[in-house]
Design a protein that fits this description.
single chain, alpha/beta, FAD/NAD(P)-binding domain, 3 domains, 21 helices, binds NADPH dihydro-nicotinamide-adenine-dinucleotide phosphate
């Protein structure tokens, strides 16, 4: 069998012109690429700092803390919760979590917008389900349930005991003589800790669009991650009665907007959706958990399901697709799994070029079906045309929703497409696009979170390591780590998240692997009765080289994409793109490597003093 016949038997007859689609994709990208890349956004400081205020928990007053603990974890989201749990399991009792928010939950504390829900299957996504003996109510959980689960984890693992909530770290310094960290906070605290772990989250800082006139608008405004229910009425499940007599505008049509727009459309007198680039929105198909199925699950089921999902979305070999949803469908058809299937038909492995071609053709076919879904659902053809995404599936975060597209059939909802240019300007009472003024009472920014800015800008504090070196200097050119979790010159300091670790669609899976690894290193350091642990300069250098080597393929793919935070807004060289600092071996190989490293027991690459 020839390669062409194999491709045809795998893909079927192509009912589209790949060259024409490629040309269209590149033209749509070119329309949107801007010189200023990530600098187009406004930082939420000074005049804009109120956009970061916590609308959910009244601020309490408390006396400053002056004490010493064994471990401080900065961040009480999934990363901090998982690390707290794994450390408790390893016998660490003296743990303090410091968290800016009024409670645990991280992204699920902040993102309470109407319709907020996880879009990775909850049986894989919610951490520690078996440990907590909890079964989510739906295949995809709604935000309040996930927030409550986070709080329950914090209770179960005693993380409230010494927690400092509503507290932001302002300074962190290594004390070489005392072999410990000194931390200061915005509450006047002065704390010392042997170990500190940063679990600040990858998308933690809201950003605003740098639209001319952004501070001229006099109507009501807020960012989706600080939803103002006092103004809109209702709660995360909807019921936004306060909007019944309001003209509402929303800027942005990313994964957040896709979830909240159906509720805004239902309640606002008029809704204007200001769109720069449409999302790809596929079937959601949420459903309640079947209690019989839940009762039939054997011990160890969650890790098994997480591993199966991780494998499905990372090109692994699996006989069964346990999760079987939109995510596994696109990965099955658009990645290495598809190449393997076509190779079986052909009777040999595909060459690199053949593989790339197959991926591209499968991608066109998939995106045609996503565009076809718009035609099926949206009644007005002109609106429908403007809701169609013209880029490859992984250029932007894929979305899954069953009520988003039908919202555009409501008479009170208007899509204002900016043809890739973005909103032109704001006035005192209106949003301007193509010189047309759209008057609104309330303007909601669904404009996402900072990506690609300096790590220390996003965390809000710098870290001074051994010999007075600042982390902002050590990482001035780029992040430098060993195993994505530690950096040379900063002993007993750990970074959870995506500082050169591998990412997977199911982010808590990645955080759990990291938490287990960090807990192991702390445990080993204690067992060997050492006071500090850090990577050698050499180990860090080698690791950084490895990350660079593996990053090349992704950079090529993203260069052809429409701008977004995945590719540093189309900025030159993609140095600040979301994936640019991740380990390109992929999660399966990466977690295996970490496991083998732990099993070897040598702590290779680390220096203990
Ligand atoms: P995004 O960064 O994905 O979206 C920001 C939106 O704002 C984009 O549509 C962008 O358009 C638009 N925008 C920016 N500037 C302008 C402008 N000047 N004029 C008009 N539009 C503008 O943020 P989200 O909050 O939607 O999502 C962030 C991430 O959070 C997701 O990718 C996902 O990883 C996560 N998330 C996860 C969810 C889940 O698991 N359930 C739900 C929601 C979010 P353009 O595309 O042209 O840049």
């Amino acid at each position: 069998m020839t390669y062409q016949t194999a491709i045809q038997s795998y893909l079927g007859d192509l009912d589209f012109d790949p060259a024409a689609l490629k040309e269209k994709y590149l033209a749509e990208r070119d329309k949107r690429v801007r010189e200023d890349g990530i600098d187009q956004y406004v930082e939420v400081t000074a005049d804009f700092s109120h956009y970061e205020d916590d609308p959910y928990t009244p601020r309490i007053q408390r006396e400053p803390v002056n004490d010493e603990v064994e471990v401080i974890i900065i961040g009480g989201g999934f990363g901090g919760l998982l690390l707290g749990a794994r450390l408790r399991e390893a016998g660490f009792d003296d743990i303090r979590v410091i968290e800016k928010a009024g409670d645990f939950g991280g992204t699920w504390y902040w993102n309470r917008y109407p319709g907020a829900m996880c879009d990775v299957e909850s049986y894989c996504y919610l951490p520690l389900l078996e440990e907590m003996q909890y079964m989510p109510k739906h295949k995809y959980s709604f935000a309040p349930e996930i927030l409550q689960h986070s709080i329950n984890i914090a209770k179960r693992y005693n993380l409230y005991d010494k927690a400092c909530l509503q507290t932001a770290v302002t300074d962190m310094r290594w004390d070489e003589a005392g072999q410990q960290w000194h931390l200061e906070t915005d509450r006047g605290d002065n704390m010392r800790a042997r170990y500190v772990a940063m679990a600040n989250g990858p998308l933690n800082r809201p950003k605003l669009p740098g639209i001319p006139g952004i501070n001229e608008f006099k109507g009501h405004t807020f960012h989706t991650s600080r939803w103002d229910y006092a103004y809109t009425g209702g709660d995360s499940s909807g019921g936004l009665t306060g909007l019944r007599d309001k003209r509402v505008g929303i800027i942005g049509t990313g994964a957040t907007a896709v979830q909240c727009i159906p509720h805004l459309g239902e309640w606002a007198r008029e809704l204007y959706v200001f769109q720069r680039t449409p999302s790809s929105v596929d079937v959601r198909n949420n459903r309640e958990t079947d209690p019989q199925w839940a009762a039939s699950l054997p011990a160890g089921w969650q890790q098994q399901r997480m591993d199966n999902f991780n494998s499905m979305v990372s090109g692994g070999d699996e006989d069964q697709d346990m999760v079987h949803d939109g995510w596994t469908d696109i990965f099955r058809n658009l990645t290495g799994n598809a190449a393997k299937a076509a190779g079986k038909v052909l009777g040999r492995r595909l060459t690199k070029a053949e593989r790339a071609e197959l991926m591209e053709l499968s991608d066109y076919r998939k995106m045609n079906s996503v565009r076809g879904r718009v035609d099926e659902i949206v009644e007005d053809t002109s609106t429908g045309e403007r809701l169609k995404p013209w880029y490859r599936q992984f250029c932007k975060r894929p979305c899954f929703h069953d009520e988003y597209l039908p919202t555009y059939n409501r008479p009170n909802v208007t899509l204002v497409d900016t043809d890739g240019r973005g909103v032109q300007r704001l006035t005192e009472n209106a949003v301007v696009v193509d010189d047309v003024e759209y008057e609104v009472d309330c303007l909601i920014f669904a404009t996402g979170f900072e990506v690609g800015t300096a790590y220390t800008r996003r965390s809000g504090y710098d870290i001074t390591g051994r010999g007075g070196q600042a982390l902002s200097e050590h990482w001035a050119d780029n992040i430098r780590t060993f195993q994505g979790l530690m950096t040379h010159g900063f002993p007993n300091c750990f970074f959870l998240g995506f500082t050169q670790t591998a990412i997977t669609v199911n982010v808590p899976h990645a955080l759990n692997e990291q938490a287990k690894h960090v807990a192991h290193i702390l445990d080993e350091t204690r067992r060997r009765q050492k006071s500090s642990v850090e990577p050698t300069a050499r180990a860090e250098e080698d690791y950084v080289d490895e990350v660079r080597r593996l990053a090349v393929v992704g950079a090529r793919f993203y260069a052809e994409c429409t701008p977004g935070y995945y590719n540093s807004e189309g900025g030159k060289g993609n140095k600040q793109g979301f994936f640019s600092n991740m380990h390109g071996a992929g999660p399966i190989a990466f977690y295996n490597d970490l496991r083998e490293w732990r099993a070897a027991g040598q702590l290779d690459g680390l220096e203990l003093n």
